[in-house]
Amino acid sequence: MFTRAIVVIFVLMLFFTAKANVGVSNEEHVHTISTIHPRFPGGEVAMRAFFAEHLRYPQEARDSNIQGQVLVSFIIDTAGAVSDVEVVRGVHPSLDKEAVRLVEMMPNWIPGKSRNRPVRVQFHMPVNFHSN
After folding, report:
1. In whole angstroms, how far apart are CA 34 and each of 37, 38, 41?
2. Is residue 4's pLDDT more than 70?
3. How many domains does the chain have?
4. Is 6 within a domain?
5. CA-CA distance, 34 to 9, in Å (whole number)?
């Protein structure tokens, strides 16, 4: 009886796992891990320079001395474009909005690859706001 229950549970798990991926093409699937990770053009140094050049600390937040780290989630698609940007952990509406604006304006990345094919990869990135 116990063995039969285990087999039934195993078959149900296989059914639901397979069902979850029906209709999702390889291009639509979002990876959280890839063989080759997407890269910002020019690397991390270029990304820091991009943020330094384009970040606009909201005046409302600056006046109120609001600072912190906004955690943003986004997807790098198979062409390297940034999409599906959203705040995972916010600090203040004005800082959250600026973090999304900044990530959305990033140039195309070098796409990630899995099995030598470009894949969509999800990223989480902190955007720091500190007043000087």
Report:
1. 6, 8, 18
2. no
3. 1
4. no
5. 30
The CATH number of residue 56's host domain is: 3.30.2420
Q: Which residues pair with 98 in a beta bridge?
A: none
Residue 14 belongs to a domain: no
CA distance 85 to 115: 26
pTM of the model: 0.74
Q: Cα(95)–Cα(126) distance, rounded to whole angstroms?
A: 12
Is 5 within a domain?
Answer: no
Picking from 68, 81, 87, the residue whose alpha carbon sits closest to that of residue 125 is 87
How many beta carbons lie within 10 A of that of residue 52, not counting itself? 8
Spatial separation of the C-alpha atoms in residues 101 and 25, rounded to whole Å: 29
Interval 21-64: pLDDT, tens: 333 344 567 665 557 889 999 999 999 999 999 999 999 999 99
Residue 13 lies in a domain: no
Q: Could you read off the pLDDT of 82-111 as tens digits, one per residue?
A: 999 999 999 999 999 999 999 999 999 999
